[in-house]
Amino acid sequence: MKQIKRTAIIGMGALGLLYGEHIANAGENNAVSFILDDDRFERYKSRRFTCNGKEFLPPMQKSSIKETFDLIIVAVKFNALESALETMKNCVGPDTIIMSVMNGISSEEIIGNRFGHEKMIYTVAQEMDAMREDGNLHYTKKGVLCIGHLPQQNSENLDSVTAYFDRIKLPYRTEANILYRIWTKWMLNVGINQTCAAFDTNYGETLAPGKPYDTFIAAMQEVIELSKLEGVNINPEDIQKWIEILKSFDQKGYPSMAQDRKTRRKSELEMFAGTVLSLAQKHGIKTPANQFLYDEIKRIEAEY
Q1: pLDDT per residue over 101-115, tens digit each?
Q2: What is the DSSP string of 188-246?
């Protein structure tokens, strides 16, 4: 079993900083580097970062430097995935293990098509409330990484990752049916991310009775219907489980798409409602809640 010593992180958003800080603070020498294209490196090298108010000096490295890493964590937005593949190409060696903590249901397939599906550990990050504003990361819940492999993959890479996470005490759990877990997290984000963005609400306001709450629930129910047609078969009871998790968050906080609206950035709409609408067309069904969310967020973003 391979021992993981060097980790590269692609992306300096909330999750990238969250895991980078954890690995850096685990006490292992030279354990992590954030990989940036040369232009971004020049912009970020003197930037100040904090994690929960404490200064964090993230180790950075130019993507033009050729160094293979034991583990790569991809933590970018869906819109930046193609450029991330270029950023990380000099980091990937024959034995590199790759994890994507991106939302959605397609990033592992896209990354695997480029670098090899045997390298992928299927991953979903959940139960955290991390938010990044400028260079400041804030979270009250670090959450957990759910990890697993597909039936056709061997378990050696997963064993290496679990041994590493045990060593550095990074919260995780293994999933026998990782695709189910990825789909349920995607279902949540289709609901909460898009609803908070469309209605400009936070967690607490969305969970209160009203149109945002009704839209949030309806959007997730449409994913459940699609999951049956795709053979994943999400249990409807998972909706209430996610609601209970959301209630444990800072109720004045809000997810990434709502942050995008506040900063007038293009969101990951295509990964959420865009994918729902595509699958709905494939199966010949209607998804009115996601159609509303797609149209509304498109309208909002057209004003930027």
Answers
A1: 998 999 999 999 999
A2: HHHHHHHHHHHHT--HHHHHSSSHHHHHHHHHHHHHHHHHHHTT----THHHHHHHHHH
